[in-house]
Amino acid sequence: MKRCPYCAEEIQDEAIKCRYCGSDLRAPSLMDWAEKRLYRSQRDRKLAGICAGLADYLGIDPVLMRVAWVALAFLSAGIAILLYGVLIFIIPNQDELPRITSSEP
Per-residue pLDDT for 86 more than 50? Predict the structure, then answer.
């Protein structure tokens, strides 16, 4: 038995998710990041989908990303608004991403 690093409850040695707090116990690997794609969200979009796409990429709630972006816009004297406009042209829409398929026989 081992202890969960997040809630300190005893869990099985081969556990990949804590049954008490629900934390993912797997070590983050580079493959997890390599499979992620940054895109503008089509499903949770308010303006252009930048905040929702970034939130999905980082694994956080889109509302928190929007609040952080508004705070950054005020603290940066509007530079974040210009950056948002640039990101609209740089980051592709979710439906424009190429489909990744496995090449298994």
Answer: yes
